[in-house]
Structure formats: structure tokens, C-alpha cells
Design a protein that fits this description.
single chain, 185 residues, mainly alpha
Length: 185
């Protein structure tokens, strides 16, 4: 229960909202799992990628877009949009976890492990980006600048200076590496 309190505090939401959101995400997970099981024969499995510059660049761009979407959404002075984006990202990943279990667990253990690490890391990554974004929106109004973007930038500096950037860089590197290895391009 302590983890639930921490999440509700960090996302500035209520316990009931969080439980309702988890219930909806569980429904998405179940639907994705059922569709994956039904269409299992039609899915083609690709092997691990040969790491080359093109694959590394494409996986870097994928990570870059995740960061940019939360950076852009933190400019909007309402944390609701960040929470909605987090909800859709986590719901999408839960569906992907169901897909990973059904498709890769039986015969492809290395790809299964890499994809599972990538998906769990993605949940932690978007959660941390959402917390930073929500904190930026919350502290933005307390900055002593006239220009909105100056206040936003000062709030971003405050949030990233609190050693959150170390965890963020670690999560980004894991996501980047597992994306480069396990996601077909």
C-alpha cells in the first residue's frame, strides 16, 4: 500500500482515480491478450537484430520521441494531459507485455527476456517522465520570471537537478539498448 500512496502523491491524483485507471488498463491488457491468442498463427517472429549504426540510430530516435512527447506536454500548464498520456502509454505497454508472453515465451527465451525488460523499463521511464512533467507544471507557477517559457525552463532545471536525471539516463540507456537488440526495424 505504501507504493500506491507514493504513486498517487507523485502523480498528484487520488487513490480512486488510480484504481479506476488500473482497472481500465487491465481490460486493455485482457483484450490485447485475447486478440494475440486468437491471431497467434498469423504473427511472424523476427530474430535478434544485428547491431549496426542504422538499428542504433532508429532505436535512439524511438527513445528521443518518448522524451520529446513528455517534454512538449510539460509545457501545457495542466497536468491532466500528462496523466492521460501516461495512461495510454502504460495501457499500450501492458498490451505489449501480453503479446510478449503469448508469442515469445514458448520458444524464444532470449527475445522474450529482452522484450520484457524493454517493456518494464518503458513503464518506469514514462512514469518518471510523467512525474517530472507534473512537477514542472506544479512548480512553474512559483518561478519568479515574467515569461512563461523562462518559468518553465527554470522549473525543468529544478526538477532535473534533484538527481532525477541519473535514474532517467539509466532508464533511457536500458530502453535504447533493448530496443536496438529486440525490436525489428
Amino acid at each position: 500500500m505504501e507504493g500506491l500512496k507514493t504513486i498517487t502523491k507523485n502523480l498528484k491524483t487520488t487513490k480512486n482515480n488510480l484504481q479506476f485507471t488500473c482497472l481500465i488498463m487491465l481490460v486493455f491488457f485482457t483484450i490485447s491478450l485475447v486478440f494475440t491468442i486468437i491471431n497467434r498463427d498469423k504473427i511472424q517472429i523476427s530474430p535478434l537484430n544485428d547491431v549496426n549504426f542504422n538499428i542504433v540510430l532508429k532505436s535512439f530516435i524511438a527513445v528521443f520521441f518518448v522524451i520529446i512527447e513528455y517534454l512538449i506536454i510539460s509545457i501545457i500548464p495542466n497536468a491532466t494531459f500528462t496523466k492521460i498520456l501516461l495512461f495510454f502509454n502504460v495501457a499500450m505497454i501492458l498490451g505489449g507485455i501480453g503479446y510478449t508472453f503469448v508469442i515469445f515465451l514458448p520458444n524464444h527465451s532470449l527475445i522474450f527476456i529482452l522484450r520484457l525488460i524493454r517493456q518494464i523499463d518503458y513503464i518506469f521511464l514514462v512514469y518518471n517522465l510523467a512525474v517530472i512533467s507534473i512537477q514542472v507544471v506544479s512548480t512553474n507557477k512559483f518561478q519568479n520570471y515574467q515569461n512563461y517559457f523562462s518559468r518553465w525552463f527554470a522549473s525543468m532545471k529544478v526538477e532535473l537537478s534533484q538527481k532525477k536525471w541519473i535514474k532517467l539516463v539509466f532508464l533511457i540507456l536500458i530502453y535504447w539498448g533493448t530496443t536496438a537488440l529486440a525490436v525489428p526495424y
